[in-house]
């Protein structure tokens, strides 16, 4: 029964998408074609940018001692949204926008996570030594 329901939804989705595109094309004409091309280009740009940024985010999270699953979830979410934007249709664009509007989780294991720089430096505390063995201070040169 559940498999039949899933297949029905899977088959109804393209029919709904095509029906909606026909209605919108009849109403807006060439404007719909321009919309579909612009959204597809935005989806392609989103995928390309995410591919370039995922390695840096992953390395930054590992260097800061963070959870890489959070980075992978956010990147996968953006890649799926980009693919949805590439597929011509209004319903898939709606799902892509919903995916992009989902906020990333801020709490990890019940603790508030602070924003950190590449070397694990906290951005909320100002200047902090990257190494605990460094003693900071001022000096004056006397000749």
List the helices and strands and how they pair.
Layout: H1 2-28, H2 30-63, H3 68-86, H4 90-101, E1 107-108, E2 111-112
Antiparallel strand pairs: 1-2
Helix pairs in contact: 1-2, 2-3, 3-4
Question: Please, could you describe this protein's structure?
Answer:
The protein is mainly alpha-helical. The protein has one domain. 64% of the residues lie in helices and 3% in strands. The chain has helices spanning 2-28, 30-63, 68-86, 90-101, and strands at 107-108, 111-112. Strand 1 and strand 2 form a beta hairpin. It starts with a helix and ends in a 31-residue tail after the last strand.
Give the integer mean of the pLDDT values. 81
DSSP strand (E) fraction? under 5%
Task: Indicate the percent of residues in helices.
Answer: 55-70%
What is the topology, as strand order, of the major beta sheet?
1-2
Radius of gyration: 24 Å
| Basic shape | elongated
What's the helix-strand series?
HHHHEE
Number of strands: 2
| Overall domain count | 1
How many DSSP helices?
Answer: 4
| Structural class assignment | mainly alpha
Largest sheet data: 2 strands, antiparallel
Low-pLDDT stretches: 107-126
Give the terminus-to-terminus CA distance: 90 Å
Comma- or semicolon-separated keywords:
143 residues; mainly alpha; two-stranded antiparallel ribbon; 64% helix; 3% strand
Structure summary:
The chain has 143 residues and is mainly α.
């Amino acid at each position: 029964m559940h498999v039949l329901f899933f297949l029905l939804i899977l088959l109804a989705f393209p029919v709904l998408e095509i029906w909606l595109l026909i209605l919108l094309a009849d109403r807006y004409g060439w404007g719909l074609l321009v919309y579909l091309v612009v959204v597809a280009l935005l989806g392609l740009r989103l995928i390309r940018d995410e591919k370039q940024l995922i390695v840096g985010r992953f390395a930054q999270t590992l260097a800061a001692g963070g959870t890489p699953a959070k980075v992978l979830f956010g990147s996968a979410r953006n890649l799926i949204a980009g693919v949805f934007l590439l597929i011509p249709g209004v319903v898939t664009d709606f799902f892509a926008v919903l995916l992009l509007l989902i906020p990333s989780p801020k709490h990890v294991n019940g603790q508030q996570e602070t924003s950190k720089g590449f070397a694990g430096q906290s951005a909320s505390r100002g200047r902090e030594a990257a190494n605990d063995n460094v003693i900071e201070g001022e000096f004056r040169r006397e000749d």
